[in-house]
Amino acid sequence: MLEKDDSVNIRWKYYDNNEVHTKDVKSKIGDSLLEVAHNNDVPLEGACEGSIACSTCHVICDKSLFNSYNQFNDKDNHYVSISDRENDMLDKAYGLTDTSRLGCQIHVSKHMNNKVFEIPKATRNLAVDGYKPPKH
């Protein structure tokens, strides 16, 4: 059984030059997906650094992490609905799906062990091509 400060394995799926890549990373419970991505060289942008002011950390989540009301299971094992602010930012995201969330708003929980988080093929950002996001 996992304890609070244990880690889980998260699989990232992302695209580079139309090539699909996957990367498994050990992820600390409680960290945001944005932090996990940046700490493990996964190309998730996060231009606003987690302040819910952009959609560049848009991820497509594994459907099994949602309940029938499309609420996400959070780090404390509670189902929570998406906030209005996050929903407004997601409206601007490229490739929006029913399981889209902002990576800065999702914190790793034991329920995410071996789940896949997909980074869409494109993002809506004004960064120059080739921009590499810094670690937070």
UniProtKB/TrEMBL annotation:
SUPFAM superfamilies: 2Fe-2S ferredoxin-like. Residues 8-123 form the 2Fe-2S ferredoxin-type domain. It holds the Pfam family Fer2. The keyword Electron transport applies. One of its GO terms (cellular component) is mitochondrion. The keyword Chaperone does not apply. Keywords: 2Fe-2S, Electron transport, Iron, Iron-sulfur, Metal-binding, Transport. GO terms for biological process: P450-containing electron transport chain. One of its GO terms (molecular function) is 2 iron, 2 sulfur cluster binding. This is 2Fe-2S ferredoxin. The gene is ADRX.
